[in-house]
Each structure stands twice: as structure tokens, then as C-alpha cells.
Amino acid sequence: MIFCCGEALIDMIPEATATGVSGFVPHAGGAVFNTAIALGRLGCPTGFVTGLSDDLFGTQLAAALKDSGVDDAHVIRSHLPTTLAFVELNQGHARYTFYDENTAGRSLTPEQLPDLPDTVEALYFGGISLISEPCADFYAALALREAPTRLIVLDPNIRASFIRDEGRYRARLDRMIAVADLLKVSDEDLDWIFPGDESLEQKARQLCTAGPSAVLVTRGAEGATAVLASGARVDVPAKRVEIVDTVGAGDTFNAGVLASLFEAGVLSKARLPEIGEEALTGALAKGAQVAAVTVSRAGANPPWAREL
Description:
Layout: E1 2-5, E2 9-16, E3 22-29, H1 31-41, E4 46-49, E5 51-53, H2 56-67, E6 70-71, E7 76-78, E8 84-90, E9 93-99, E10 122-126, H3 135-146, E11 151-155, H4 166-179, E12 182-186, H5 187-193, H6 200-209, E13 214-218, E14 224-228, E15 233-236, H7 249-263, H8 277-295
Parallel strand pairs: 1-4, 1-10, 2-8, 4-6, 5-7, 10-11, 11-12, 12-13
Antiparallel strand pairs: 2-3, 8-9, 13-14, 14-15
Helix pairs in contact: 1-7, 3-4, 7-8
């Protein structure tokens, strides 16, 4: 089983009303939530760890998890409100404004760490939940606690404008990268982590030396690259589609990668270090395939396995 650990929120997506005035429509979202939904739709046994409100938006999020077959037994519920992310779309690309103070997701603390079932082989972390405190410390503590026996997958999905204390964030991220087995970053993430003129491959290999067995780098329309601690490199092109918007593209790419590794039987602490170029190429290709479907339609609406 794969457990996704991170934020669930409401994306307020702009949409024209009947009168022609722009309004916002609430869509279930959040980087880690999107990955969990996509994994569930791809047929992978998936669980979710987050803080979820009992307000109307929390009810919407819980219903979406259930509809996609995601186990929410380890969700931590409260009366605090749900995080809202207002989305501004510019030629299909999304910019976010977050309303996240004192919310159900952000207010998690390390004292609330859940006990996980033995069936969980991999944990996936990422998104703004790794920035906002105190929940960032909750997720870091969970990753460090589980790393000795379970596979840790990390996608920081860095939003620099959201970071208030860069030193604290970098220190926390370094601790999580050190225990990660599989790390995914965008080219923008990589340049933020390692400012400078080195190539993306050189920077990715620096991350490999920090702990991960493999580092995946997404490059938008240029495709994706993976480097292995063994020295191998794999490149896969992006699939060409007509883009409606890019909301959830990276999140569903991650789900495609994880689903492929799960199907290949290598998504475990023992097997991932032995991964070969063929399995990794197949994983990147499936990630690109799943992401291509998502960007071809509005919002973070990952495909079901039958659509691929």
C-alpha cells in the first residue's frame, strides 16, 4: 500500500458566470491530495494522511477520496477550517493565493503522528505541507520515523514565495532528502536548491549523493530525466497534447511514476535500490502519459486506468 502524506485543500478555480462576471468554483485539490486521487484511480491501493476539516469543504474532500478509492482511515479530523487556494490562470499556467492560517491541515503537530498498518510499503510526501508550520514538522517527523523500514518518496514542489523562513525550510528539507529513497524535483526546484551555473544533471547528482537512490527531474514540455546513484541516466520526452491548464500536472506525473513502479514490484525499501534503466524508463513514460491526460482538461482531474 502507498500512503500519501500532505495537504488536502480547495482550489478556487475562476469561471465565467451566466452574467459574464468571473466567479470561483471550488474544486478538491492540493498537491499530495491530487497524487492520492490519481493513484486511487490508477488502481493502486492508496491511503492518505492529512488534517481534514469537518466543514463543507472538508466533506467535499472526503467524498472525493472515497469516490477514487483512497483509504482515509488515518486522516486526522478537526473543527478547524479548510485551506483555500485561489487560482489565477494565465495562458493555462496557474498562480496561487493561499488562505491557510489556523486550518485543519496546517495545524497538525508531531504529537499527532498516527500508527500506520504493516501493509504500507511506501510513503509519499510533498507540497506546501512541507513549508507551513507546524504541519511541516509533523510530516518531517513522520518521514524520519518511518524511513528505516519503509520507502520514502519526496516531491518538495517548492513555492519560494510561500516560504517565510528560508533557513528553517532548507534545514527541514535537507533532513527529508537525506532519508528519501526516491526524490522528484522540477527544473525550477533544482535551481532553487542549488543556485548556480551547473547543469541540471550535475545538480541532480549532488542530490543523489545526499541519500536518494534515484532523482527525477521534470522539465515541462522538455520531458523528464532520471539519474541513479549507480551513475545511469534516463530521459523520456513529454507527450504532446493541447493544454487546457497545468493544474495538477506534476502531481499526476508522480502518480503515474509510482503506479508503474508499484506494478513492476520495485516500490519498496528493499527493491528500489536495485531498479534498472528499463523499469525507470517505463515509470517516467507512464508519468508523462498520465500528466498529458490531466493537462488536456480543466483542473486537477486525473485519469482512470481505463482511460489510458
